[in-house]
Amino acid sequence: MRRAILAVTTGCVLLTGAACGNDADSSTTAAATPSAAPSAVASSPAADYTADTKAVCAKVDKIFTEDLEDFATELGKMIAYKEAKQTSEANTAEKSAGKELKEVAAAMKKATAAAQDPGLVKAGEASAEKITTTAGDTKFFDKIKTTKDVDTVLEAEFTAWFTPLSEYCGE
Fold first, then answer.
1. Cys-Cys crosslink for 4: which of 18, 51, 102, 125, Cβ 3.0 to 4.6 Å?
2. How far is the C-alpha of 37 from the C-alpha of 1, rounded, in Å?
């Protein structure tokens, strides 16, 4: 996540002059009731999603680092236009930045929808929803007026976006 913030910050500065971890562990064990007949203990081992989770998390990592580049570009334009007091152009760049975030959300949802672990699928949906909400939030964009604002504002947003996935995909 930190790498993603750095990438966006660097992209904005240039224009104006975030490994997989824990899998959710679930196991189901049912014991047969004692009787005179031979008893059997029904046990199904927990599904091992480790390899699939690592693959999905690699895609998530790519989305949070590389796929945010277009967002960073538009955000940098927005800041430059705000600093130049070119309101119309700043608004256009803001809308473009929002569009780029929506595309990131769609990529996030698609990447995690294919996961074998249902918990990771739900976490991806929650993350994508948070990103989509930010994409349409003018108050979020209003907080970013200079490149100095980028790191502090984006860190809070990145944390919110990534939190649902943090149980599955770590730093």
1. 18
2. 57
Q: Which tokens belong to 107? A: 């990529």
Per-residue tokens: 97? 């930045």
**Amino acid, single-letter form, for residue 8:** V
- Tell me the β-bridge partners of 28: 44
Beta strands in 34-162 (DSSP E): 41-44
CB–CB of 115/124 below 8 Å? yes
Are 29 and 43 spatial neighbours (Cβ–Cβ below 8 Å)? yes
Tell which residue, 129, 114, 117, has the closest CA to residue 46: 117
Q: Which two tokens stand for residue 20?
A: 């997989």
- Judged by average pLDDT, the poorest of 110-114, 131-135, 153-157 is 153-157
Quote the pTM value: 0.74
HSE at residue 1, side-chain half, CA atoms within 13 A, is: 18
Count other Cβ atoms within 10 Å, centred on residue 109.
18
Return the structure tokens found at 16. 């104006």
Separation between Cα atoms, residue 92 and residue 80, nearest integer Å:
12
Distance (Å, rounded) from C-alpha 35 to C-alpha 39?
7
pLDDT for 165 equals: 95
Q: Residues 90, 91, 96, 98: is their CA dihedral positive or negative?
A: positive
CA gap 102, 129 in Å, rounded: 9
